[in-house]
Amino acid sequence: MTTFDSTKRSLPELLKDITTGKIQLPDFQRGWVWDDDHVQSLLVSIARSFPVGAVMLMETGGEVRFETRPVEGIDPDSVTKEPDQLILDGQQRLTSLTQAVGLDAPVNTRTAKGKPIKRHYYFDIRTALEGEDRLEEAVIAVDENRQTRKNFGRDVDIDLSSRQLECEQLYFPCDKILDSSEWLQDLFKHNQDAMGDFLEFQKKIISAFSAYQLPVIELKKETSKEAVCLVFEKVNTGGVQLSVFELITASYAAEGYNLRDDWFGSDIRDVPSRKARFEEHELLRDVQSTDLLQAITLLQTRERKLEDLKAGRTGKQVRPVSAKRASVLDLPLDAYTRWADAVEKGFVEAAYFLKGECFYSRRELPYATQLVPLAAVMTLLGNRWREPRIHAKLSRWFWSGVLGELYGGAVETRIALDLEELMTWFEDDAELPRTVIDASFDPTRLESLRSRNSAAYKGINVLILREGAEDFFWKGDIQALDQQGVELDIHHIFPRAWCEAQGLSYRIYDSIINKTPISARTNRMIGGDAPSAYLARLQAHKQVQLGDEAMNALLEGHRIPAETLRTDDFDAFYQQRKRRLLEIIEKAMGKKPLLGSDEGSPEATEEGAYKA
């Protein structure tokens, strides 16, 4: 079935339908943003009969229902409440033309720098008649008093504040283009000598507006909500992507529910918004409205699937658990209101779980996407996630996703499977989730982990921290110091300068194997010296005063082999620390890393990379 038609419609017809409310905007459309220069350029393009691009409209009356609003500048009380069509693409152009040509009020626009201004637009008739190449100069903008000023606003330059002044100076107001008869009568009264010029202007310029045809793509009312979302994102010339949240907001508004107020808060209700409540938790400050919607959709579709199974449906009759955008867009309002508070608590419980895994800062979180199924699971489990048996499984699943690097890219299918399979695994030890089965860690991956933005890099760093790693200088473990505001970062164990002096390749010395979290103060004391030198300096510092045994214990807390550090033996250090990191990875994932990949020296695992 064809879901759209393409046609042409005259500009006067479109503007009439917009001003009467037959054509309106869906509530998810952003406000009008075009500046004064863009408006003037558009008027010139129409006057020269240049193409200005197609617009896209959608029929109303189908299953997709949105809250609607008139185009900016039009009084909502003066138009029909039930539009025939909605603008999906072309809002900026149609709003500019409506305000400049279709309405008498000044246009609320802005300067190129964004300062709000009010403008009326005119054609200087004499300049316009000098030729098409003069049309850009012929279009002028005046302020809300229909004047332009000079000398820093002290003197009036052009004054068009009355019809007589307009006629005498031959400036034609753009808001009279669609009906110039009254202005023509006034011109006859105030400036008969200019009648010939006006008639020529009418023939060349006004007729261009009257005859102008815009290409129009009309979506039929049968178009799905997902298609509307996709179409808007693909064709929206404003360059601002439409979010699922905005589309659902418009859909719920048609049913009398304000989703935007629920998320962002309302001036009427003196209670923290849902967004503000999330932001009370450090690990949840980056949770988006779409994350909440996706988690609710998981639970709603799971509930629906269980109903289908209970009713005896089989095969394709059973609707799947889903986190895909189409399913989120179809989330019923009653499901949102029923699940929203519980899922919010699920996110909070997810934050408590992550703290237990030693994540304290949102910048440490490997994958934001993994929060969604985690919160959905927590919503179903309630306090049960704290039971040792369930907690151990939840932890293993989480670290499998992180260290197996399975939650990057498009993960909607994995999210849905994880919710179902985790709930099954909690009751049946034999039913391992696919994420746990699929997850693997190749030991050679340690050698390529250099970016702190990598999920596995972040995860391994936290695994080191949760073993109780302490700073080499300041008293206290790294995470406690971080919470106290001490400046921390991940630094080289064998310093970069020393490594380069030894001819080591950055591909070796810059990997996570040669890095650990320490304070900025410790890093400055390390400098570029050999480990044997900086360890002696650290231990002898009057504020540290540590013996070899105590310092060795600190190093072991970072999974750093102390003896290889003290002898500046990079080769032995590299292999021993690699094995120790693999041990904590194995412990977290509940399975051994891939076999046969962790043997040999750096030279063997990366030919020619170890020595420069």
How would you summarize this macromolecular structure in one to three sentences?
With 612 residues, this protein is α+β, with helices and mostly antiparallel strands. The chain is built from 30 helices and 14 strands.
* Lateral arrangement of strands in the main beta sheet: 1-12-3-5-2-4
How big is the Rg? 34 Å
How many beta-strand runs?
14
Structural class: alpha+beta
Give structural attributes.
single chain, 612 residues, alpha+beta, 3 domains, 6-stranded mixed beta sheet, 4-stranded antiparallel beta sheet, 14 strands
Structure description:
It comes from Vreelandella aquamarina. InterPro entries: GmrSD_N. This is GmrSD restriction endonucleases N-terminal domain-containing protein. The protein has 612 residues and is of the alpha+beta class. It has 3 domains: 235 residues, no CATH class; 185 residues, no CATH class; 161 residues, no CATH class. 48% of the residues lie in helices and 11% in strands. It has 30 helices and 14 strands. The protein has a 6-stranded mixed sheet with strand order 1-12-3-5-2-4. Strands 6, 7, 8 and 11 form a 4-stranded antiparallel sheet that branches. The radius of gyration is 34 Å and the shape is elongated.
Topology:
Blueprint: E1 4-10, H1 11-20, E2 23-26, H2 36-47, E3 55-59, E4 68-69, E5 85-89, H3 91-102, E6 107-110, E7 116-124, H4 125-128, H5 135-138, E8 139-142, E9 147-150, E10 155-159, H6 163-169, E11 171-173, H7 181-190, H8 195-211, E12 213-219, H9 225-235, H10 244-253, H11 259-264, H12 274-279, H13 289-310, H14 325-329, H15 333-356, H16 371-381, H17 388-403, H18 412-427, H19 434-438, H20 445-448, H21 455-466, H22 478-483, E13 488-492, H23 496-501, H24 506-509, E14 515-519, H25 520-526, H26 531-540, H27 548-557, H28 562-566, H29 570-589, H30 602-605
Parallel strand pairs: 2-5, 3-12
Antiparallel strand pairs: 1-12, 2-4, 3-5, 6-7, 7-8, 7-11, 9-10, 13-14
